[in-house]
Amino acid sequence: MIVTHRKVRTEPGLQTKPHDPTNDMTTEEEHDLVIKTILRRERGFVEWEDRVVQKATKEIGKSWREILDLIRTHATTSLEQEIEKRPEWRQQFRCWYKLILPSEFFRDGYFMECRLDAPGKWKIEDTKIEDIDFDQVIVKIVNCHEQINR
Question: What pLDDT, on the 0 to 100 scale, is given for residue 114?
Fold first, then answer.
């Protein structure tokens, strides 16, 4: 398992399902799985929404490969896990992930949002993350924009 500097924010009063090792992985294990998947060098484990790759390459001025290298460089120390609270996504995804990439064009950096694709189908036996078929796990980059710190 990858050791990371994790940051998890939850809203006061927000209820999440308790961990059931026969049903689903913990949020910590999911976070580590997302990082492990991002760091894979083989093609096909990180996917982009079409509109996101077009927007990011245009706004940052780098190719998708260069942006993916930046994401990999910063994922182990800066990828933040957020509990999903948006009603339209809450039933499908327990968490989403945010990464602020440094950028010469944007004072506060560039926001990238990703998620573990179809997280409900990744099961853990006896709470061992090693039992997951890592060749079936995909991280999808679903949103991007200039980061604005208030």
Answer: 95
Report the distance separating Cα 111 and Cα 103, nearest Å: 10
Chain-centroid distance of CA 109 in Å reads 17
Assess if residue 9 is contained within a domain. Answer: no
83 contacts 10 by C-beta, under 8 angstroms: yes
Q: Which residues of the chain have pLDDT under 70?
A: 1-24, 118-133
Task: Label each residue of 111-133 as H, E or C.
Answer: EEEEEECCHHHCCCECCEHHHCC
In a domain, 2, yes or no: no
Specify which residues 100 forms β-bridges with. 111
Report which residue type is found at 101: L
Residue 30's domain spans which residues?
A: 25-146
In this predicted structure, what is the pLDDT of residue 126? 44
For 114-145, what is each residue's pLDDT tens digit? 998 854 454 444 445 555 667 778 899 999 99
